[in-house]
Amino acid sequence: MAARMRRFLTTAVLFVAVAGTAAWFLTRPEPWPASHWEGLGEPDVANGALVFSAGGCVSCHARPGAVEGEAQLVLSGGLALKSDFGTFHVPNISPDETAGIGGWTLAEFGNAITRGVGPHNEHLYPSFPYTSYARLTAKDVNDLFGYLKTLPKSPDVAPSHELPFPFNIRLALGGWKLLFYSDAPRVTVDTSNPKLARGQYLVEGPGHCGECHTPRNALGGFEPGQWLAGAPNPEGKGRIPNITPGSKSIGSWSEGDIVTYLETGFTPDFDSAGGSMVEVQKNMAKLPASDREAIAAYLKAVPAVQ
After folding, report:
1. What is the pLDDT of residue 8?
2. Residue 177, SS3 per DSSP
3. Is 287 exposed, middle or buried (0-12, 13-18, 19+ CB in 10 A)?
4. Where does the signal sequence lie (predicted)?
5. Helices 45-54 and 277-284 meet at what angle, rounded to 10?
């Protein structure tokens, strides 16, 4: 009997060890190989500024209360993002060497922004939209990093996230990524058309439009087949609208209407952008006209969702 029990316990321990090793292997952080960030040369800071605008970095990382001008370029973080999983506090991404990312390498920055892997090889929470930024090219990441280094330093340290168990266990994020992280296109459009290809890159990548405009399941992943179909407002009241061609309101807009809205904030019926879209529109207005046209073309080409 004792020998049989020992064999059972030994088998159980081996099973747990093998299962644990397999789980770790499947859910471990996966940064890019070092070669991905090599040979990029000096960053194009002017392009980095455009990536910065397209990515809406100011909207979350500017010091709370900074509403315009140079004040918004002090990226001290601190904004509290409330969610069903707890409260996330946006970090300092100024070039301060201690409080911000001034001591980071390009690889550390790039892996954080596109792979959700922090400088200590830890999983990052997807409140930071790396599931969209995953589509950024290495060149755009290099240019963005170069631009961020030109901005003012801030010594402010953002509070730690306030997350209940089990959401405070970062290891579990590896399982979440296994389910929901991908750098594949969200939908199929004719990427042989340069305008559509550019629009897809901007909307699905740096613009991270789906983060607000796509509904999510109970685990926080996007609902399949509902790309840009509208979702509950993460700030509380109302809904973020459906922006596919199947929308009852925006679906009737022409490409020109969308371009004008992104440039000026005015809708075809002379209404204006409101809520968090105000900041998004201001960022879009800083892009070249060709980029706003590409975004409009893509939005008219995505599958219509009623």
Report:
1. 45
2. helix
3. buried
4. none
5. 150
